[in-house]
Design brief:
By secondary structure, the chain is mainly beta. It has one domain (2-65). The chain contains one helix and five strands. The strands form two sheets. Strands 2-1-3 form a three-stranded antiparallel β-sheet. It has a two-stranded antiparallel sheet with strand order 4-5. β4 and β5 form a beta hairpin.
């Protein structure tokens, strides 16, 4: 599945909902649209849905599972 990974340099930047972006967090296309995420904040990655996990409300991937 294609996710959008938040780049490390945009860690702790504010989202449109008042929350923050977390470095390496995975966002879906719907979340990118909902939060009006600028394209410079993210990069597209392909990760299996089975190889992701949630930690404190943010979705992450196993490091070795990311394919750019």
């Amino acid at each position: 599945m294609v996710y959008y990974q938040v780049k490390k340099e945009y860690d702790n930047k504010r989202r449109s909902d008042g929350s923050i972006y977390v470095a390496d967090e995975l966002l879906t296309a719907a979340e990118v649209k909902r939060y009006n995420t600028p394209e410079r904040y993210i990069k597209a990655v392909t990760v299996s849905k089975k190889k992701t996990y949630f930690f404190f409300g943010a979705r992450f991937a196993d490091v070795e599972q990311i394919a750019a």
